[in-house]
Write a structure and sequence with these properties.
With 171 residues, this protein is mainly alpha-helical. Helices cover 62% and strands 5% of the residues. The protein has a three-stranded antiparallel sheet, with no helix packed on it. A hairpin with a 5-residue loop joins strand 1 and strand 2 (152-154). Helix 2 (31-65) runs antiparallel to helix 3, helix 3 packs antiparallel against helix 4 (92-102) and helix 3 packs across helix 5. It is globular and about 60 Å long. Residues 130-147 have low confidence and may be disordered.
Length: 171
């Protein structure tokens, strides 16, 4: 999707739709009740974000202590964080989307969409659609990096703990 179209939808269309839904709800339930409902949903959302966030942090800690990489839990943490931002944004549409992201039964749907999109955009998972891949000379480490010019930048520390700036070495 074009970035300008996405920004247009995000900053123009969504607020207009939110205002339309708020006005329709206010016409049916009354202004005071609709404002009260918006505030109530925000408080419930904040409580759910806190509860789900604590649970995800505990799952991440458990997986890290077992020596596993918490891939799903990190994506879930991002989704819960995004849901929290949506819940604090006034409006019924963003609250509904935020609640969908918060519920453990619907979150795997969004997680699957994000992971599949990430797999399509990167070659790290072995995407067969990508014809050319850069040669991975990084040895899967932050401390050894080969840039596009073929120079090796070695980041290391001395035995006494002093960190030196990166040294540039040619092959």
């Amino acid at each position: 999707m074009n970035m300008m179209l996405l920004l247009f939808l995000l900053f123009i269309v969504v607020p207009i739709a939110e205002l339309y839904v708020i006005i329709k709800v206010a016409q049916n339930t009354g202004v005071f009740n609709s404002i009260l409902l918006l505030i109530l949903v925000s408080f419930i959302g904040a409580w759910l974000v806190r509860a789900q966030g604590i649970g995800i942090i505990q799952k991440i800690k458990t997986q890290l202590t077992m020596g596993q990489i918490p891939n799903k839990e990190l994506v879930d943490g991002g989704l819960v964080l995004f849901a929290g931002a949506l819940m604090l944004t006034p409006g019924f549409i963003t609250d509904a989307l935020g609640l969908l992201l918060l519920f453990p039964l619907t979150r795997p749907i969004f997680r699957g969409l994000i992971i599949s999109r990430f797999k399509q955009k990167t070659s790290i998972f072995g995407n067969p659609n990508i014809k050319e891949r850069k040669k991975n000379n990084s040895r899967n480490s932050f401390f050894f990096y080969r840039n596009d010019q073929g120079r090796i930048i070695d980041l290391h520390a001395d035995d006494n703990g002093e960190v030196h700036p990166p040294e540039s070495q040619d092959d």
